Amino acid sequence: MIDAVRQGAFFKAVLATVLLVLAGCTTTGSTFNASRLDLMTPGSTTLSEASALLKADPVDVYAQGDGSVLARWAHRASFVPDAVYFNRELWLRFDQYGYFERVVKSVNVPQTGQVKHAPYAGHTTETRPAFPAPTPAPVVDAPVASPVQM
């Protein structure tokens, strides 16, 4: 009988410890998968395509004065407050036309490969036209009257 009481007390102590640990667990943000980060191409990947590649929407999107956007993916988990924590962040910059420019900041995000460089130089200072320049009309050789013949 005494062993049964001890086992019951031990079980209650273990259960109380587990409940205290679980009560101290918190998470913020949303999990994201950065394993396909190297598939983002500067100048062609959009914010919605980046969200699809990361399998999550950004936690925050900050519009900049020049029309560009900073998007932040973040996930933070804490087990037993201030004892064990896990933090991941990824900041991506998209130009004023909505295309990925570069990784601004990453915290605890494994880089499976390097993100490709921008396909054009001076991306942050150049402005990209919203539409491609029109191609000039072809020149047709037509007979021209000479002033000497007139």
Overview of this protein structure:
The chain is of the alpha+beta class and 150 residues long. It has a domain at 28-107. Helices cover 20% and strands 25% of the residues. It has helices at residues 2-23, 47-54, and strands spanning 26-29, 60-63, 69-79, 84-94, 100-107. Strands 1, 2, 3, 4 and 5 form a five-stranded antiparallel sheet that branches. The model is unreliable at 117-127 (pLDDT under 50).
Summarize the structure.
With 150 residues, the protein is an alpha+beta fold. The protein has a domain at 28-107.
Layout of strands and helices, then pairs:
Blueprint: H1 2-23, E1 26-29, H2 47-54, E2 60-63, E3 69-79, E4 84-94, E5 100-107
Antiparallel strand pairs: 1-3, 2-3, 3-4, 4-5
